[in-house]
């Protein structure tokens, strides 16, 4: 008896699309129903390699290939457009990050999903937040959720290990433009970081953002960002990101009343207090002395399966068997996008914004930037694919 297979189509055959193509090719329970790219030569080349049909119009792929599900790996603005059409046809969707460029488009996408579920109650919607599968982040999540740290007071994340050269930005005419990409580091590199923040701590109640436009690169979008978050429970958060630092830093500090958790350079360390620092502060008669603490390096199995393949495998298993959990449901993409849009809106308005943010105000500002852009850059003519594994978090 032959193994059951799910028929999947792939829309978008750029750098990240090539990663998906490799994964699908290796999955025995997947039939690749078709591939689509607006560049005919690219579509034909991938179709030949994957022994499938080439399309240059995504609607033709959705209507003619007989697919059950589609992976969306096109430029960001087109994520909602392709997803809405897929949902209308009862087709399952796995979308690359971010869910959309702005919250109003994300809402349109989610509304289409909810409407389609009335006719197709088993319809699935996943988003590619593969960093949730990384062993160190999974361990951080388990420690935070266990309550070992007690009441959280601060989370500070310096993540500047996103170095991108000018050659990277010149590699495509859509990159680092308001019209083509909708933003810079927050829209392209940091959706995973933003998702991880809200996955661990939730969406803050207010956001203060400082975004620098083209500070280190010849681009029209942000390449350095500092943000401050305030949560309803009193916790504060900091986020510092840039694509200009080399060597970069990826350091996460999480402070709770019972100690501190630090993730940096492949080590996860717990600094454990003998009692609550808040209780100690209120009860001690000492004016300057600090509590002794225990330093514990937490073991992490770095060989656990992780990455895009895990997310795709979970998605396929869910479709085939109706069991198991998605790594990230598509609707969860709103959390990271709220942070991204909120940081930029705060920076544009030069004031703190409350959550939920004014999505209409952000969309209006984005449209203004697109309409007023006079930025012209030379795009590389190369059609070669980069090794995207170099850009993935570890």
Automatic annotation (TrEMBL):
SUPFAM superfamilies, A to Z: Glyceraldehyde-3-phosphate dehydrogenase-like, C-terminal domain, NAD(P)-binding Rossmann-fold domains
A Pfam family it matches: GFO_IDH_MocA_C3
Stored InterPro entries: Gfo/Idh/MocA-like_OxRdtase_N, Gfo/Idh/MocA_Oxidoreductase, GFO_IDH_MocA-like_dom, NAD(P)-bd_dom_sf
Domain Gfo/Idh/MocA-like oxidoreductase N-terminal stretches: 6-119
Ranges where the GFO/IDH/MocA-like oxidoreductase domain occurs: 137-261
Protein's recorded name: Gfo/Idh/MocA family oxidoreductase
């Amino acid at each position: 008896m032959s193994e059951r297979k799910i028929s999947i189509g792939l829309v978008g055959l750029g750098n990240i699309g090539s990663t998906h193509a490799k994964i699908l090719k290796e999955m025995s329970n997947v039939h690749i129903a078709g591939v689509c790219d607006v560049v005919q030569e690219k579509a034909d080349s991938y179709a030949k390699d994957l022994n499938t049909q080439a399309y240059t119009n995504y609607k033709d792929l959705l209507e003619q290939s007989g697919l059950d599900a589609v992976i969306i790996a096109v430029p960001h603005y087109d994520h909602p457009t392709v997803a809405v059409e897929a949902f209308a046809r009862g087709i399952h969707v796995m979308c690359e990050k971010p869910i959309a460029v702005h919250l109003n488009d994300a809402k349109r996408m989610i509304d289409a999903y909810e409407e389609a579920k009335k006719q197709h109650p088993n319809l699935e919607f996943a988003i590619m937040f593969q960093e949730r599968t990384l062993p160190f982040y999974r361990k951080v999540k388990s420690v935070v959720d266990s309550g070992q740290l007690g009441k959280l007071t601060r989370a500070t994340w310096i993540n500047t290990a996103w170095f991108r050269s000018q050659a990277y930005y010149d590699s495509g005419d859509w990159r680092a433009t308001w019209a083509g990409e909708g933003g810079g580091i927050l829209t392209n590199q940091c959706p995973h970081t933003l998702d991880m923040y809200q996955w661990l701590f939730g969406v803050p109640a207010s956001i203060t953002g400082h975004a620098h436009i083209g500070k280190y690169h010849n681009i029209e979008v942000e390449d350095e960002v500092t943000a401050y978050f305030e949560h309803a429970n009193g916790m504060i958060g900091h986020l510092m990101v840039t694509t200009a630092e080399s060597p970069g830093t990826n350091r996460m500090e999480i402070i709770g009343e019972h100690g501190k958790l630090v993730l940096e350079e492949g080590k996860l360390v717990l600094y454990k207090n003998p009692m609550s620092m808040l209780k100690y502060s209120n009860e001690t008669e000492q004016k300057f002395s600090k509590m002794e603490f225990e330093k514990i390096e937490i073991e992490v199995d770095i060989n656990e399966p992780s990455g895009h393949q895990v997310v795709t495998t979970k998605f396929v298993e869910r479709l085939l068997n109706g069991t198991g959990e998605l790594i990230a449901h598509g609707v969860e993409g709103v959390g990271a996008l709220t942070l991204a849009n909120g940081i930029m809106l705060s920076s544009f308005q030069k004031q703190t914004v409350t959550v939920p943010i004014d999505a209409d105000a952000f969309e209006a500002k984005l449209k203004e930037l697109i309409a007023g852009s006079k930025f012209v850059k030379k795009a590389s003519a190369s059609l070669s694919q980069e090794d995207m594994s170099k850009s993935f978090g570890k």
